[in-house]
Structure formats: structure tokens, C-alpha cells
Amino acid sequence: MRSPTPADLYPFAGQQLPCYVNGEFVRAAGSFENVNPVNGRVIATVTAADAALVDRALRAARAALSGPWGRMSVAERCALLRKVAERIEQRFPEFVSAEVGDTGKTLKQATSLDIPRGAANFHAYADLLLARGSECFEMSTPDGRGALNYSVHKPVGVVAVIAPWNLPFLLMTWKVAPALACGNTVVAKPSEETPSSATLLAQVMHEAGVPPGVFNLVHGFGPAATGEALVSHPEVNAIAFTGETATGAAIMKSAAPGVKALSFELGGKNAALIFADADFEAAVAGTMRSVFSNTGQVCLCSERVYVERPVFERFVAALATRARALTLGGPHDAADMGPLISRAHRDKVLSYYHLARTEHGEVVCGGGTPHFGDERDQGAFVEPTILTGLAEDARCVKEEIFGPVCHIAPFDAEAEAVRLANDTRYGLCAAVWTSNLQRAHRVARQMEVGSVWVNDWYLRDLRVPFGGVKLSGIGREGGAHSLAFFSEAMNICVKL
Ligand code: NAD
Ligand code: 6OD
């Protein structure tokens, strides 16, 4: 993969992004604007799929299940997925430009995480599917009968994939790749804020020769629009969704009459626990990443940091020094941190910055918006912010903010740290920083979450279970867990 140069431009500048239905790129009358959050400029318009277009996409997806796609061997399907991955790698600079155009995220992140992970998701699920075995049990009954039981894996059918805006390509492909690997057909809806990398994905599917109807893309909004039309449609067999907990609840309601299979990756209010025996510099550097990566817009970000009292003051000072030094700007400014996704989201994050003051918190650094003196003042930037002194029941400590902000509080004992970390309605992940091996294992096991990182953060092996407990999700994806969700296992019992 080569790094993009500044000459690599947003690939859809001034165009209307199409939907992709039954192997054709489709434009329709309804459209909406795609806004660059660095400067508030409209960079493209996007075709909005109405209920009729969603219906066409789903019927095409249903029909494709029994076409050439349904007759492909596992090896042929996996070879096609690899071709998709290779096309993504060949068009890497365009994918990067599409992603940073929509989100304003740093080139460093888009080139090292978002786009490489998109290609890796296809490679990984091609590998995993080829390696999948099946269960086999030989049985005998007391009266002398015998049988061989073996399982076969069939596609679930038509899968709706609904993705959020924070890691648009990574999270879209994280579900599309295993869904296709397992032989399903897909109708995907990216967030209305980030339509571009998904549109390039449709182009890549087309170029790679994925048969018509196997992958379909519909753009549009969620409630009472494209998203709702998709998840409530009777042709959908399963829904793989990543986004806010409240949206997950709404989708569950829409899906209930059809009793559809659901896999949900939802919000978080994740804790980082810093013990006094931790490698101090590593804990500070790791917490900088876990709080401020992607401008704090990763569901796995630490918004609650608990630090053992002997190192509390030093830790707050060290983190604040680094946070103040972060440079803000657009992807081509070589800045450390980009804007939030939109002015609307900026208003939400700023409302928490203001709330923190009324809740009697101390704003150690940040707490407002930067001033650039140029067009970036029309963008969606906020300052990296560190809060202390809030009560544990303050809304800023309880609610997901999804911005570059954390609250830091001291603790005195291991059991107290565990209790504080678990005192939330969410349960996505936790980070534990300690040099005591036994404590690391002991504390990690007590976290009420789906993933714990010890002495690191967001280090991903795509084979491991990934998901949340409590309000952070339903089910697990990753490795065999994704293959299980996107397949129907059937048992065949043969009398011997
Ligand atoms: P969101 O829930 O607002 O939107 C996500 C997607 O759902 C979008 O495509 C949207 O158009 C669609 N949608 C909205 N309402 C819908 C409806 N009624 N029916 C069908 N579709 C609908 O989330 P967001 O603001 O895009 O993303 C940020 C949120 O996502 C945060 O809460 C974050 O924690 C969460 N998230 C979780 C994970 C995870 O792995 N657990 C990963 C990324 C983001
Ligand atoms: O890395 C992943 O597979 C994943 N699902 C990450 C989710 C990040 C949330 O914003």
C-alpha cells in the first residue's frame, strides 16, 4: 500500500453519490448534502434511497441468493473476497481521501487504521471461512441403534448492515466481509454523515465481479427514512448494527415483528484504571490514545479514568500537558487531532463541557472551541478536554459524550477501582494499567465488559470475540463468533 500524497483529492467532489442496487449505480430524485467537518463546506450530494429503492435492493438481494452466488463453492467465494481486498489496496489513496473528506480525521489514522483494516477484514474472513470445520458426533443408544450427526452451515439469507460515522469503512467492512463470506447477500446503509468510502466499496465489488444483487448500498437517514425502511422490511433475515444504544433499541422494535436475528455493537462509557505500580509513561501515552484517538469518537475510548491516589496528581498533570500540546486541524494540516463529525455533534459535546461546570467539575484543560482565524472556524472542532472533581453520579460521568474528553478521579484500593469501573449501565471495554501480573488477571476478570486491554488499548486480533454487555450490545462478533452469527447451523443425523 502506498501513502496518499496531498494531490490525492476527495474522489466525489461536486458529484452526486449513487446508491448501488442489483449491480447498477442508481441516482434518484431525493438527495442530501455531504458536508466536510473541517470547514463546513458541502463537498458532494448523496442520493437518498426511499422505501421503494430499499425494497428493490432487498428483492435483488433475495434473488441473488439462488443465483450464481448461491452456487459458488466456499473457495470461489473466498477468492472473490480476496479480490475485493486487493482492489481496496490498489485504490488505497482514493479510499483514504474519501474517508478523510467525510470525517476530517487525520491522514495518519486513515492510512494506518481505517482503510488497512477495511482490506484486512476481507482477507481475515476469507481465511477464517476456509479454516472453518464442522461439528461431528457419533452416537449410540442403549437399544443398539447408532447414528452420525454432522453440522452444515448455510447462509442466514439477506443481511442488513447498518454502520455509524466514526470508523465508517472499518465498521462497515467488519460486518459486510463475514456476511458475504458465509454466503449471505447484503444491503448496507452507511451513516448519512459518511457515504463516500461505502460508495467506493460498491465500485470495488462491481470491479471484482461480485454478482449483481449480492452487495447493495442504500444511502440515507435512519428514523422514518432509509434505515427504518431497511430494518423493518420483511425480506431482511438478520441485522448487524453498530451505533448508539438508543438507535439499537429503535431497530430492535422495528425488527421485532419479523423476529430477525440481531447483532448490536452499541455505545460505551469505558473506564481506564491506572494503578500506582504501572509503567507511568506507558500509562500516560496509552491513555492519551484511549481518550483522544479519532477526536474521542471511538466507542472504545476511555471517558472515565481512575488513578490510584499516590500518582493521581502527577498523572493528571502529565495528561493535561500532553493534551494541551495536541495540535488541531484538518487531515492535510498534519495535525494531531481532527474535528468532530459535524456541527450538530459539536453542539452535543460542547453541551457536556458546559454541563461539567454546572455539575461543579474542574476543567483542567480545554473546555471550549479553538480559534483558527480561517475557514476552519466554520468546522466542527472542539478542544481536547480533561475534567476532574465530578461526583460519580454526575451526568458527565454517566453518559456517553463521544468527544475528546475524559474525567479523571482518584481511588485508594483495588476493590474500589473495580466497583467504580463497573458502576455504569454500559459494558463495552476497559483498560487496566499495572505491572503486577496477578492484579492484571484478577482485575481484568472482574470487569463487566466485553473486552479488557491490559497495559495497552485497542490492540486487535480479528479472531477474538468482540462486543459489549449491558447497554453496550447484544452478541459477539469476531472470528468464529461472526461466522456463527452470519450462518445457520443445521444438523444432519444419519442412522448407521
Ligand atoms: P447512530 O446510532 O446515530 O447511527 C448509526 C446508524 O444507524 C446510521 O447509519 C444511522 O443512519 C442509522 N439509524 C439511525 N436511526 C435508525 C433507525 N431508527 N433505523 C435504522 N437505522 C437507523 O450512531 P452514530 O452517531 O452514527 O455513531 C456513534 C455511536 O455509535 C456512539 O454511540 C458509539 O458508541 C457507537 N458505536 C459503537 C461501536 C461498538 O463497537 N460498540 C462502534 C462504533 C460506534
Ligand atoms: O475493531 C473492531 O472490529 C471494532 N468493531 C471496533 C469498534 C470501534 C468503535 O468505535
What attributes characterize this protein structure?
Aldehyde Dehydrogenase, Chain A, domain 1; 21 strands; 6-stranded mixed beta sheet; 16 helices; 2 domains; binds (2E,4E)-2-amino-6-oxohexa-2,4-dienoic acid; 7-stranded mixed beta sheet; 496 residues; disordered N terminus; binds nicotinamide-adenine-dinucleotide; Aldehyde Dehydrogenase, Chain A, domain 2
Strand neighbour order, sheet with most strands: 15-16-17-14-13-18-19
Low-confidence stretches: 1-7
Please report the number of helical segments: 16
Ligands:
nicotinamide-adenine-dinucleotide, (2E,4E)-2-amino-6-oxohexa-2,4-dienoic acid
Number of strands: 21
**Percent helix among the residues?**
25-40%
Mass-distribution shape: globular
Report strand %: 15-25%
* CATH-assigned fold name of the largest domain: Aldehyde Dehydrogenase, Chain A, domain 1
- Radius of gyration based on Cα positions: 23 Å
CATH superfamily label of the largest domain:
Aldehyde Dehydrogenase, Chain A, domain 1
Q: Structural class of the helix and strand makeup?
A: alpha/beta
Distance between the termini: 54 Å
How many domain regions?
2
CATH class designation of the largest domain: Alpha Beta
Average pLDDT taken over every residue: 97
